[in-house]
């Protein structure tokens, strides 16, 4: 809206007498004004372009310049950011494992798991039903996974509740103290009965769909009450949360300092940054470590490095951040097979995989059948293509780069999502099971 301002008549007197500008003066003034305005515009554009795109190395941490500026001007985080990174005495390799439906022809069974591969196995996914933890019909499978602790006594086995398609009951459960108390009581009963070592909260995402700010607070109340009851249980129960990577969801869904106070660690879901979707029909990378050189603006935030450091900026200690690494990729169907670079037009998900999700073993078969591979040195991840099929994924080289980055930047560890989609049956290389997870393990769990 333009506000109408009444100007006193006296102001017009300056224009009515001998002092008014000549035509020449007006032209000169206009030219000077436009030149000055253009110069300011160019400087402003260059500043923001640099602030968005440029990255700085600070204490071996590669961060966007604008984030570096925010750290230096934020009294809460400036000291922590500038200080020497604290060495991690014990890294984690947290592995999600899901019970697959009976229709799956090649499903990973509990007796095919390697008990020495991970520090934590998180079983997914339980649900919230009538404000209680419901593990479904897989009780026998839970017992089989827990039995692995007899072979590897230091292994922790947890249960994850929620998931992208299984978190409908959270909103009702967190809505009041009575419902949360009922849920926590059921968690204590289930973990004790099954000899589980803790709970992982995978609510995707508090207050996001309905933009209900109260859920953001109610989620913290749940975490606080769980922490309190876990500590009073007399058992060493672990509490973790699977959390979002995009900046907008982080801001909307989490009260980070309060979450950091009561959680043991977070599992950062630093994947699915890009996949085929009708309103963004171009190829792109599932889980890039860094932004690509040509990316600007919002796109520079869609990578592992940005998300992890943004959580630090918001108040989550590095020693509580476990970085997600996917063992699957995303497939696309190209519009034009001759145009097969990143950001190439795509018309649908690809034929490889299930609903566009591609297991690492399927990627290996894709390459064996003549697909060409491109490794992007700026983003540290590969993609492959053949004819109109295009797949973004992580390979041994990219997960190695991520594990080294985790170690160098003193994050708590890596979260592998998931064991089921790693090459557990040696499709890629004979007698080499779980190659992606094993690569991460060798880097993070070897002194």
UniProtKB/TrEMBL annotation:
GO terms for molecular function: chitinase activity. It comes from the Eukaryota. The keyword Glycoprotein applies. The chain crosses the membrane at residues 26-48. It holds the Pfam family Glyco_hydro_18. PANTHER family: CHITINASE, CHITINASE 11. This is GH18 domain-containing protein. It comes from Trichogramma kaykai.
